[in-house]
Amino acid sequence: MELPKTYDPKITEDKWYAHWLKHKFFKSTPDERVPYTIVIPPPNVTGVLHMGHMLNNTIQDVLIRMKRMQGFNACWVPGTDHASIATEAKVVALLKEKGINKSDLTREEFLKYAWEWKEKYGGIILKQLEKLGASCDWDRTRFTMEEDLSAAVIDVFIDLYNKGQIYRGVRMVNWDPQGLTAVSDEEVIHKEVNSKLFYVKYKIEDAEEWITIATTRPETILGDTAICVHPDDERYKHLKGKKAIVPIINRAVPIIFDTYIDMEFGTGALKVTPAHDINDYNLGVKHKLEVIDTIAPDGKMSAAAQFYIGEDRFAVRKKIAKDLEEMGQLLKTEDIKNKVGYSERTNAVIEPRLSMQWFLKMDIISKPALDNVLNGEIKLIPEKFTNTYKHWMENVHDWCISRQLWWGQQIPAWYDNKGNTVVCKTKTEAIEKLKVKNPDVKSEDVKQDEDVLDTWFSSWLWPISVFDGFKEPNGKDINYYYPTNDLVTAPEILFFWVARMIIAGYEYRGQKPFTNVYLTGIVRDKQGRKMSKSLGNSPDPIELIEKYGADGVRVGMLLCSPAGNDLPFDESTCEQGRNFSNKIWNAFRLIKGWEVDANIVQNEASKIATEWFDAKLNEQLNQINDLYSKYRMSEALMCTYKLVWDDFCAWYLEMIKPEFVDGKSLPIDKETYDATIIFFEKILKVMHPFMPFITEEIWSLIKVRGEKDCIIVAEWPKVEIFKDRIVPNFKNDLLIWETSLKNIFSDFEIIKEAIKFIRTVKLRRNIKHQENIEVISLPLLQEEISLNYWKNIIKKITNCNLIITHEGLIKTNYDCWINGKMDFFIAKKDAKSIEDIEKLIGELRYTQGFLDMVVKKLSNEKFIANAKPELLANEQKKQADAEAKIKALEEQLAGLK
RNA sequence: GGGAGCUUAGCUCAGCUGGUUCAGAGCAUCUGCCUUACAAGCAGAGGGUCACUGGUUCGAACCCAGUAGUUCCCA
């Protein structure tokens, strides 16, 4: 079979994904194995895949695939979130295009449209995840508004209400005038904007005196019910007991005194509008002020305002400023920067607004969620988020859980016509319950609360509800999979979602929902801006996959994304990922092309090469396992990358590559070939979690395999203890034959340097690789054994004739590489040049300096007294090495003079 | 306004208990090579006052204090 020169992901990806599905490799059912579980952070059902999802789900897939290979019963539960506000907004907009207003529809009609729309377009995102290679158990796909999950939400609401944890009340909430609903504190984004500070004069009642206040919101003047100043403010002390006249509306309001006021800000006098500002509201409660709500839910002036009725608040701001100016009561305006809250979902400016809402008390219920993160029962990765988490949990406010929307779980609260409220599942039940308080209640008098619950009030149950933990609290699934293992999500929703899941977990299972929370960064563009649809700076992930292959994009994303760090996304890393795919593909082509001859005896270089790579592979595997266990994903990937590209391709394959004679590759011996296949299979396995498609493809081509013999379910390589390798080592000048992993690697580092030296000389002299060159090496006695071990590798890789000698002759016309342990010389036709001598002198000077430093350190009594013995020994060794090197350099130089 | 974090090569980041396996990796850059696995490649090279200023220490990228810049969280 002819293999193409470059790897083409297009012909393999869909094929293998279908194959995996066909053999149900993603499927998980409880069995005797240990489970490894991840629940997906459910994307909005209306969503399309963006780069954040890509990163997030790549990490989850890597974890799931690795654990699956390690023998865990890996279960990744997918699903979508009904996303009340976002989805409703989308449906409203769509209906509007068709000329239908939401207000003209009944709740039932609207929901019918919404469900139709969901069935048609919802879940596109899950299909897109397949392209990425996500190995979710699709049979377990859930939706937060499906029947069972909604039932759980309702049950939880009723339960918490009965426990006294849920209450209803008028509070100041964050009102989204566009979505026409309350939103939680967490859904408000504060942005700094340029604003104007208006200085407005209010007349003092029955006096020819004025008081000037400063405000950024003159449109709320109509709702003013007091003026507030600091009790210590000398400027205003005489106004005690006086009233001020609110301009335009001419209402007399009291002047109150409160230490809340910042005397430095503006004029030190504040207009108090309890209906439209949380701080003013608190002042109002304290001083028993009247509340006049002058802004309607849609952000336009209400009838209570009396003026400008029906006009938008921002239009009124300008208008009122103009009117005040004409009245001579606008003293001046100043440009300032202040923070304004925006709705996360609709980007409308949030209006603080008093309204009747449902709340969940957070103080008691959130306690275990705080404790168990602080005590390490649940780990946040990276750890730095624990601080933020702690801060938030210690200052947590009651959670406003009602939303004035239709798309979502309708609140199971029922009201009669006499102001009684009951909370229960059905209307029939409600009537029964209401009869206790109101015996004459009629069915038509009983109305259900119009509002739905916050979306997060359903997604906080996700790790329990996806396993039907509410429907069957003792079910097989929930008992087996819960608590789950890892959660991978963005830090933005640490409070929205993660904290609340932990709360629900302890409240309803008495157990944490997961053990580790891996917080990914935010994907940003090159300029550091967050990727967003409105900026148009987000590449389409599906297009990226088509361009670089899913494996390439996965590698690209992970290469630059340590946990918790933002990811400045640059397509070039995907290119690197694609190039890596190609590298592996070509290594495969090379191996595949070899002809095996069972009669050939393994040569010495190949023998050493397999010994070395075996050791290297095990060492790196150990390293990779360790990095995974610390969730250092990009480092695990980099380690894998270097193992494959550098150690396997650049060194190992070069060491064992059969020679080319007469335009034809010689056959390879069976022993080396078999070892190579085993190595290759192992590194394919290690690569698989990162690059599932190409590894599966090569896995299937490298050997004849059965349908189900797939790498996705192959066993993760075990770290084998490396013990039957004997390399020379020296202790206290005595030659000791001992087993040592460390030596084979540090030895090889010196050999690599020697090889580099020979290559450089050949390159500089324009000697082709095929052309042989004579190299002389003068090793110290101790190093000779080591050199003998590696000599065939050196010969093979550099194509040289290596002569090992002890004649301490100074070579005047040689290129040399001197390290004091094993010096290398290559003869040259012309004599030593000045540059060569200078280079040697430079080297000598540096080594001398280094030695001086070590000697100084060793002659420092305090150092000797304080340093650990190992450190001391190490310093002594450094001294000896440096002295040997200096001696060799000096001899060399002496010969040149 | 309160709190937390960050600042190491052109870029993205490692650097654990202070000590040449401490100044590292990948990418990018530069210079040679179309050498029969791979130019999506190979070989080689050059990049850093570890933000700044002081302190502790025999010894500081690392510990302490302050300054600047920056990001996030809360109000």
Labels describing this entry:
single chain; alpha/beta; 7-stranded mixed β-sheet; 4-stranded antiparallel β-sheet; RNA-binding
Q: Layout of SSEs?
A:
Elements lengths: L9 H13 L12 E5 L11 H19 L3 E5 L1 E2 L3 H14 L9 H15 L2 H9 L9 E2 L3 H16 L3 E11 L4 E3 L4 E17 L5 E6 L10 E4 L13 E4 L4 E7 L11 E4 L5 H10 L25 H14 L3 E14 L7 E10 L6 H8 L4 E3 L3 H10 L4 E2 L1 E2 L9 E3 L5 E3 L3 H11 L9 E2 L3 E2 L2 H4 L2 H4 L10 H6 L4 E4 L4 H15 L7 E4 L3 E2 L16 H8 L1 H10 L7 E2 L2 H22 L3 E2 L6 H26 L3 H24 L3 E2 L2 E2 L2 E2 H18 L4 H11 L24 E5 L2 E5 L2 H24 L8 E7 L1 H18 L1 E5 L9 E4 L4 E6 L6 H25 L2 H6 L2 H28 L1
Parallel strand pairs: 1-2, 3-4, 9-11, 15-23, 22-23, 24-25, 26-29, 32-33
Antiparallel strand pairs: 5-6, 5-14, 7-8, 7-10, 7-13, 9-12, 10-11, 14-16, 17-21, 18-19, 18-20, 27-28, 30-31, 32-35, 34-35
The structure holds one RNA strand of 75 nucleotides.
Structural class: alpha/beta
Q: What general form does the structure show?
A: elongated
- Beta strand %: 15-25%
What is the CA-CA span between the terminal residues? 63 Å
Number of helices: 27
Instruction: Summarize the biggest pleated sheet.
Output: 7 strands, mixed
Q: Detail the poorly predicted runs.
A: 730-739
